[in-house]
Amino acid sequence: MHRLTRAPIDVAAALTEVGSPSAGALCSFLGVVRDNNDGRHVTRIRYEAYEEMAIEQLGEVEREIRAQFDVTGVVLIHRLGELAVGEASVLVAVSSAHRDAGFRACRHGIDRIKDLVPIWKQEFTPDGTSWVGLQ
Predict the structure, then answer these.
(1) Count of structural domains within the chain
(2) Which positions ≥6 away from 119 have C-beta within 8 Å?
(3) How far is the C-alpha of 132 from the C-alpha of 134, rounded, in Å?
(4) Is 19 a domain residue?
(5) Residue 84 to residue 125: CA distance in whole angstroms
């Protein structure tokens, strides 16, 4: 399961969604908006995406996780729109029989989302705004 959302990420619902009676591990990575970047104070963030392609690429990440790791479930969710400091921006959750596969699958998932999925981050600071990673 993979999706983009403009609503807050419901972590408890996602963990329920990814769970399986055959899984002994539920592993997750939750990215949250922090209040600083490169020495600058960040007040909020906006995420934008090429949505059709982002959904397609999230699906590719999900397929990679399922093919490369012994998992029973996968949930990938990324927020779009404006987020306040402390809000969750991305969730990678997997279920697996054992924790090692789950931890490795989560790491792979977030790394591939960052590398592959066309989602852009605009940071708001007291001095203005800037797009992260577009320089």
Answers:
(1) 1
(2) 47, 48, 49, 54, 78, 80, 113
(3) 6
(4) yes
(5) 12
| Interstrand relation of 2-5 and 71-79 (parallel, antiparallel or unpaired) | parallel
Q: What is the CATH number of the domain that holds 86?
A: 3.90.1170.40
- Using one digit for the tens of pLDDT, what is the confidence trace for 76-97? 999 999 999 999 999 999 999 9
DSSP alpha helices (H): ranges in 31-89?
A: 51-68
What does R_g of the chain's alpha carbons equal in angstroms?
A: 15
Q: Would you tell me how many other CB atoms lie within 10 Å of the CB of residue 54?
A: 22
The structure tokens 């996602």 sit at 14
Q: Which residues lie closer than 8 Å to 64 by C-beta, 6 or more apart?
A: 108, 112
Question: Domain range spanning residue 104?
Answer: 2-127
The answer to whether the Cα torsion of 105, 133, 8, 127 is positive or negative is: positive
pTM: 0.93
How far does the chain reach from its first CA to its final CA, in angstroms?
32
Asked if residue 134 belongs to a domain, the reply is no
